[in-house]
């Protein structure tokens, strides 16, 4: 109905061109506020039901296997000041520096074991970046191994980090030889962060290469698994990273709760705050996230309410930490939806703020604000709020990318489990029929079998390929997707709102039937070889975002683009378009 109204609106608008150039937005026939209000009610009811279900313990399938760990980097947040790790750091630093009783082996492993979120990666980063440690080694490299052990990727990453250049070799033997020669006779400091693989054979293969290094070389391994630590450890005893003390948790919590303020100015909050800190169970990640939550309301009653919440008492084996679940529970509903939607992004994905906001807008998660502020501005506020609540993190101040900690990502997956689905490269899954938002890891060649699990799904709102490694636009990575996505899959998904096939080299057209997808609000065809868009695109009256960045074969836009009255973002950088269709100036939202 909405689209029909829009179609009429466009038609009327065309008729009235001599009289009136555009319809003022205040005359918009769409009652967004009402619609969002209803949606919010519905969401709250659903949430209530989900909560009831949790209380009843109906949690089968929850906390699906963690499929992939965050690709961490060696970079530690600027000005970062850790709590309660001085002794750990000093002890491990001594082990990393040369000593008289070096082991007989050329290299020693420093295994760090501890539960998820306890601070293993952080400690490894502190050691790796310590100037005194650094200068003792000829070469340095950091690789985030993660759950899916991929020997080729590990060796390639180590090798690339040593040379600081990307490498095109994809054959294992050549890569091994290359790494062997790179380490030969040199002292190296490597970090294998987040190792899960227990196989001795795999480890032995890597170990063999490391033996070519000079005496005194070190490999820091972080892992949640004691068995893994036992597999890799040679001479240096396993270092158990203990939980933080309650007091350190309290200090960390106050840092995030009071931000620039002094906790002394809130003496009334100290007692209850310390009790909450104790419930963080020594986990810095929990202290940080809860601190950010508490900081939203520096009020005794509110803090007490959080302390008394019975979500604390839920068992959490194989599931999400109660402290993190609380952080979600206390989010305002508009943020809950936006946060849950982010579960379509895989662990370690670098969130591009602008793009995330465009997707939220496309999915109708951002209400049109009273003050006529652009929806994007509201989206930006939401994003910043999630950042200030530590649900997003910004690893580097000088770079515009954001990430989610892997346990926070688990939380997002947990809360969105029936509606969002991420198809990870190495797993074949059954996709729940009610899934609305679907993402998958782009492979080099995505054949139709990859999308078979979508067979019974009929109401996708989001279809979104993702990649973990940022693309190097100077390198011509050739990615292909089965044409069946356009010919067979797309036509069955009538509810699509956000659709992307960006980066695929074989995407050179869109079918005319794209015009049937009347709900589409977001299309991303960036870096495809699309030559022209069908005229039917101009009937997608709801379309807000059309991304054609880097489509170098595209020379022309359809003539009736002026009909896309809701178009807000059109990116044609890097295309060969040198003339815009007529009356584009009428698109007042652009
Ligand atoms: N000593 C500390 N002081 C302050 N913040 C910390 C400390 N240790 C860790 N953090 C913060 O807690 C969060 C979790 O830490 P980290 O990622 O190092 O945990 P982890 O043990 O590596 O978890 P995982 O097993 O999931 O990889 C990070 O956001 C980090 O900044
Ligand atoms: Mg880690």
UniProtKB/TrEMBL annotation:
Protein's recorded name: Disease resistance protein
Keywords: Coiled coil, Plant defense, Repeat
Regions annotated as coiled coil: 32-59
GO function term, MF aspect, one: ADP binding
Upper lineage: Eukaryota, Viridiplantae, Streptophyta, Embryophyta, Tracheophyta
Positions of the Disease resistance R13L4/SHOC-2-like LRR domain: 494-590
Entry-linked Gene3D superfamilies: Helical domain of apoptotic protease-activating factors, P-loop containing nucleotide triphosphate hydrolases, Ribonuclease Inhibitor, Winged helix-like DNA-binding domain superfamily/Winged helix DNA-binding domain
Superkingdom field: Eukaryota
GO annotation terms (biological process): defense response
Ranges of residues in domain NB-ARC: 86-261
Record domain Disease resistance protein winged helix: where: 344-412
Xref: PANTHER family: DISEASE RESISTANCE PROTEIN RGA3 (PTHR36766:SF40), PLANT BROAD-SPECTRUM MILDEW RESISTANCE PROTEIN RPW8 (PTHR36766)
């Amino acid at each position: 109905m909405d689209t029909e109204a829009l179609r009429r609106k466009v038609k009327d608008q065309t008729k009235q061109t001599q009289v009136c150039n555009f319809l003022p937005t205040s005359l918009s026939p769409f009652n967004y506020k009402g619609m969002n209000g209803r949606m919010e009610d519905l969401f709250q009811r659903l949430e209530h039901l989900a909560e009831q279900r949790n209380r009843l313990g109906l949690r089968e399938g929850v906390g699906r296997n963690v499929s992939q760990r965050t690709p961490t980097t060696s970079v530690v947040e600027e000005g970062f000041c850790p709590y309660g790790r001085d002794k750990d750091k000093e002890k491990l630093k001594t082990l990393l520096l040369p000593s008289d009783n070096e082991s007989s082996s050329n290299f020693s492993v420093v295994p760090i074991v501890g539960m998820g979120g306890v601070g293993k990666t952080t400690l490894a980063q502190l050691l790796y970046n310590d100037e005194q440690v650094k200068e003792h080694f000829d070469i340095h490299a950091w690789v985030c191994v993660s759950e899916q052990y991929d020997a080729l990727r590990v060796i390639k990453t180590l090798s690339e980090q040593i040379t600081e250049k990307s490498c095109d070799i994809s054959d294992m033997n050549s890569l091994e030889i290359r790494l062997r020669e790179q380490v030969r006779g040199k002292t190296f400091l490597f970090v294998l962060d987040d190792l899960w693989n227990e196989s001795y054979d795999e480890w032995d293969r890597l170990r063999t290469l490391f033996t070519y290094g000079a005496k005194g070389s070190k490999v820091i391994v972080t892992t949640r698994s004691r068995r893994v630590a036992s597999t890799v450890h040679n001479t240096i005893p396993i270092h158990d990273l203990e939980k933080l003390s309650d007091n350190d948790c309290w200090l960390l919590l106050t840092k995030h709760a009071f931000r620039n303020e002094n906790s002394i100015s809130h003496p009334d909050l100290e007692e209850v705050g310390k009790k909450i800190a104790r419930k963080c169970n020594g986990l810095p990640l929990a202290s940080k996230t809860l601190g950010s939550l508490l900081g939203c309301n520096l009020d005794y009653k509110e803090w007490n309410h959080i302390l008394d919440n019975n979500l604390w008492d839920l068992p959490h084996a194989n599931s999400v930490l109660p402290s993190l679940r609380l952080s979600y529970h206390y989010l305002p509903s508009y943020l809950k939806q936006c946060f849950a939607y982010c579960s379509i992004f895989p662990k370690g994905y670098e969130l591009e703020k602008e793009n995330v906001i465009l997707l939220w807008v496309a999915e109708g998660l951002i209400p049109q604000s009273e003050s006529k502020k652009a929806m994007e501005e509201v989206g930006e506020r939401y994003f910043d709020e999630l950042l200030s609540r530590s649900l997003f993190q910004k690893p580097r101040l000088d770079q515009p990318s954001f990430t989610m900690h892997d346990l926070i990502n688990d939380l997002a997956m947990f809360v969105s489990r029936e509606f969002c689905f991420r198809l990870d490269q190495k797993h074949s899954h059954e996709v729940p029929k009610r899934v609305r938002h679907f993402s998958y890891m782009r492979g080099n060649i995505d054949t139709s079998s990859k999308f078979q699990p979508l067979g019974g799904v009929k109401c996708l709102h989001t279809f979104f390929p993702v990649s973990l490694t940022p693309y190097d636009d100077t390198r011509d990575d050739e990615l292909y997707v089965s044409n069946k996505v356009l010919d067979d899959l797309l036509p069955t998904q009538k509810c699509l709102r956000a659709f992307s096939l960006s980066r695929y080299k074989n995407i050179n057209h869109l079918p005319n039937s794209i015009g049937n997808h009347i709900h589409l609000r977001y299309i991303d065809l960036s870096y495809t070889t699309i030559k022209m868009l069908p005229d039917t695109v101009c009937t997608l009256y709801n379309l807000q975002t059309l991304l054609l960045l880097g489509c170098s074969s595209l020379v022309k836009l359809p003539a009736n683009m002026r009909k896309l009255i809701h178009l807000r973002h059109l990116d044609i950088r890097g295309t060969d378009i040198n003339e815009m269709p007529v009356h584009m100036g009428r698109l007042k939202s652009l």
